[in-house]
Every structure is written in C-alpha cells, then in structure tokens.
Q: What sequence folds into this?
C-alpha cells in the first residue's frame, strides 16, 4: 500500500499521512485525480525538525513545506497542493473531514480523538491512479461527550461563543501584556481541551504560530531560554 511507504518517508521530516479518499466525480478541483492523500503534522515532531532548518523568508513554514514536499511528491508521482496556495484556496478542512477522523470543535479548529487540536494539514498529494487506501476510521466526536466544554469558558476575553469568534478581540488580547500566556504557550481555550494533551505544542512552536496569526512576523526570532 503506497500510503504506508509514503508515511515512512514523511516521518523523516516529522510529517505523516493524515488520511486519504477517492474524490467524487463532481469534485471539479480534483478533476483527473483519482486519489487524494492528506499530509500533515501532529504534536511537536515537525517543529523539532523545521526549527533547525528554518528558511529566512516571510513565511518560513510555507517555504519549508514546499521545499520538503515537492521532491517527495515527485518521487511518488503525485501532484502536491497546499493550503497556502491561492486564492482560490483549496478546501482542506472539508477534505480533512472526508479523509481523517476529525470533527469541528466548538471554537473552530478540527479536533481529533487522539491529537485533540494539536495537529495541522500541510499539503495534499493528488494521484491520477485509484490507489488502494485504508478506509477512514470514524469514532464518536469527542466534543459530543464533553459536558463542561472548557474551550468555551476559558478564554480571558470571551472571544469564543457558540457560532461566533471575536477575531479582533482575540488579537488585541494576545498583543497586550495580559495575553502573554496565549502568545508564549498557545491559546488558553485550546489548551483547556482535555483531548490530546500529550501532543500540545512546545512553547517556541506555539509562539511561532501565534505571532504568525497576529500578522506581525517579518523575521521570526526564537524566544530566549530565560
């Protein structure tokens, strides 16, 4: 099965296959492509490799991702597409829900029953051949059995409410002195989720992503060890 071989190759870079599916005929974006395999990361594995070889660019993770995955895609005779391509942007969240065991959390990001919200999708490999792929695993959404919903009542500025996300309020908080915890250790609401706690991003990784979210990263400088 090619997905097992591909997964073995990807793990050298802290990445892994994140599910696959056969696109339906009406998926126009994927015309002439018979198999889609998602590529992504879980926990801090990718960060530990990427942070040692971070390109000097405005979007270092996007640059590294493309540089890393293009040769892999070529070796497996696949076409690579990325969530940062566009506009128009590819519907990675919809693809993820077709390929992977994920559902939408109350605060927005997709939640996995093992990794929680500490994962991401970095690319999709498109194959012209209809490959033999494992059937997606489906487990009950973990948020359905979570009665307390701590992700909805932990944010210091109440940025998350059912069907609403106060983006401006969130950014203003993170940019202030009061928001240092979210900046340095990742979103407090996200950290409150009891699922996937073994995969929580390391502080430097959290800071990198949060600074990128703020839109203030020109040249990222790792935080000091003190």
A:
């Amino acid at each position: 099965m090619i997905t097992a071989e591909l997964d073995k190759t990807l793990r050298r870079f802290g990445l892994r296959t994140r599910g696959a599916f056969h696109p339906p005929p009406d998926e126009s974006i994927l015309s002439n492509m018979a198999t889609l395999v998602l590529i992504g990361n879980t926990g801090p594995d990718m960060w530990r490799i990427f942070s040692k070889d971070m390109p000097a660019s405005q979007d270092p993770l996007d640059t590294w991702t493309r540089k890393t995955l293009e040769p892999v895609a070529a070796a497996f005779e696949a076409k690579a597409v990325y969530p940062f391509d566009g506009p128009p942007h590819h519907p990675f969240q919809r693809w993820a829900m077709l390929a992977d065991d994920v559902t939408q959390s109350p605060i927005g990001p997709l939640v996995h029953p093992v990794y929680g919200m500490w994962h991401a999708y970095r690319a999709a490999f498109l194959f012209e051949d209809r490959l033999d792929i494992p059937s997606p695993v489906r487990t009950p959404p973990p948020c359905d059995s979570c009665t307390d919903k701590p992700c909805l009542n932990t944010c210091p500025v109440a940025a998350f409410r059912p069907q609403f996300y106060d983006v401006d309020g969130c950014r203003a908080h993170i940019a202030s002195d009061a928001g240092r915890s979210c900046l340095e250790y990742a979103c407090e609401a996200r950290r409150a989720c009891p699922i996937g706690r073994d995969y929580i991003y390391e502080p430097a990784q959290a800071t990198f992503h949060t600074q990128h979210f703020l839109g203030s990263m020109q040249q990222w400088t790792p935080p000091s060890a003190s």
The chain is about 35% helix and 15% strand. Confidence is low (pLDDT under 50) at residues 216-226. The two ends are 47 Å apart (CA to CA).
